[in-house]
Amino acid sequence: MRRLGFFILMNLCLIQTVFAGVQFFGDMQPGAVIRAKTTPGTAVFLNDEAIKVTPDGQFVFGFAREPALSQSLRLVYPDGLSQLVPFTLNEREYRIQKVNGISKKIMKPNPKAQARSAKDSQEVRAARAIFTPSGAFAQDFIWPLTGRISGVYGSQRVYNGKPGTPHYGVDVAAKTGTPIVAPADGQISLSVNDMFYSGGTLIIDHGYGLSSSFLHLSKLYVKVGDKVKQGQPIAEVGATGRATGPHLDWRVNWYQMRLDPTTIVPSMASVLAKKE
């Protein structure tokens, strides 16, 4: 049987979708982080894949940059009743920049650089694969750094007609040495001073597969295993790795799925306006 009832509320900067027995916070679009709360003991499935749920009924999931627009969620309640909810994601456009005239030498990867990058990627994937039973993912996230946004999620450059890897974070420009704070509680799952592409790199595990990554750092304040609180300084802005200038590249993942950090924080404009 299906539980009936569906409506949408605007709640601050987030969209709250309410079914009978479950609430979803987030916009159903590519790249979005969706957090939800349902009846404790409910089993949740996204396109038939089980999602881990906290003992008090909270869970989190997300959608990749270019997912299938047709999705479905199935909820199996403690009383045995189930609810199947098919839905369609809102389409999203990304910034695409075409760059021609790049030399073949630049386009050809360096074998040593490739090997080092592959090793770095293995460490990052391992850190993002961790599951911990922390409910920090359900907090209202804050910006780890405020300032001018110089890069956005999903943007992509096409070099000599060949698409490059999309940008999977949000870049905030700031001077080297500017403090960066934890956007939510969590535990450090990766702390490396010098990765090939990302330079100084930190990852915070917020629980239930949700993590934050911080790239191009000039100084790291924390090490693997440290527990951090929201607003706690964790690092400093830098231009390490393959960066053209000082900035923070903040990324959010649900396990290995790359999500848009701006979908779990208020708009930067609204945050800066409050500071004026």
If you had to describe this structure to a student in words, what would you say it looks like?
- This protein is mainly beta.
- It contains three helices and 23 strands.
- Strands 11, 14, 16, 17, 18, 20, 22 and 23 form an eight-stranded antiparallel beta sheet that branches.
- A hairpin with a 3-residue loop joins strand 16 (186-195) and strand 17.
- It is globular, with a radius of gyration of 20 Å.
- The model is unreliable at 1-14 (pLDDT under 50).
Feature tags:
276 residues, mainly beta, eight-stranded antiparallel β-sheet, 3 helices, 23 strands
Write down the Rg. 20 Å
Q: What is the terminal separation in angstroms?
A: 53 Å
Number of helices: 3
Major sheet? 8 strands, antiparallel
Computed structural class: mainly beta
Parts with pLDDT < 50 across at least 5 consecutive residues: 1-14
Q: What is the mean predicted local confidence, pLDDT?
A: 89
- Name the quaternary structure: single chain
Broad shape: globular
Order of helices and strands: EEEEEEEEEEHHEEEEEEEEEEEEEH
What portion of residues is helical?
10-25%
Number of strands: 23
Strand content bin: 35-45%
